[in-house]
User: Fold this.
Amino acid sequence: MRRNLFSTAGAIIAALFTGFIGTARADGDPDRGRKAFLQCLSCHSARPGLHKTGPSLATVAGQKAATVEGFGRYSDALKASGLVWNDEKLDAWMLDPRGLVPGTSMNIPGIKSTSDRRDIIAFLKAVKAEQSAERSPAPSNESGGSMMMGDRPMPDLEALGPERQVASLTYCRGTYHVRTVAGQVQKIWEFNLRFKSDSSDKGPMAGKPVIIPKGMRGDRFFVIFAQPSEISPFIENRC
Assistant:
């Protein structure tokens, strides 16, 4: 009888302890999540309105899927899914996007670490809570720190110097000749030069594209225009 009492008490304590640990893990940690979110930064930001390949995730926690304001590149599959991004769906999405929504354009292998996923969810919920607090008339925390953003600002292309501003761009037999306002000329193999547009407030001035290096080898570049319509007229075919 006494042994059974001890066994029962031990089982209860173990269950309580296990339940406590499980809850702590399920809650996630937003500070750890901020670091884990670095895995997402190449395609997403945590700043409101700053969209990349994918939408800003600043308000996504608890939101209906495919409804982030200002983002227009959602797949038809995600728009038709009817999902709401609660903890369960966010976890399943980060683990296997294509498994949750077949036909999604988010082609990544998924985040396999359970703790990373839970921490990222906690981070996203904290970011959304911070946005709500900033819109509230109540006084903000004295620290005032936007520690939850977890993102680096996009470069201001309009502010780049003359060595990055493109004065002329000619094409001849597989080679682009890029002359900068500073007078430097770079000869770039056509396969290593990519043309892009940035219509945001961080983009270049109209009619004044910029060139920036891309990659680690030093032989690949982007020329970025304010609008796609500027690209073809700016390039001159001349040898």
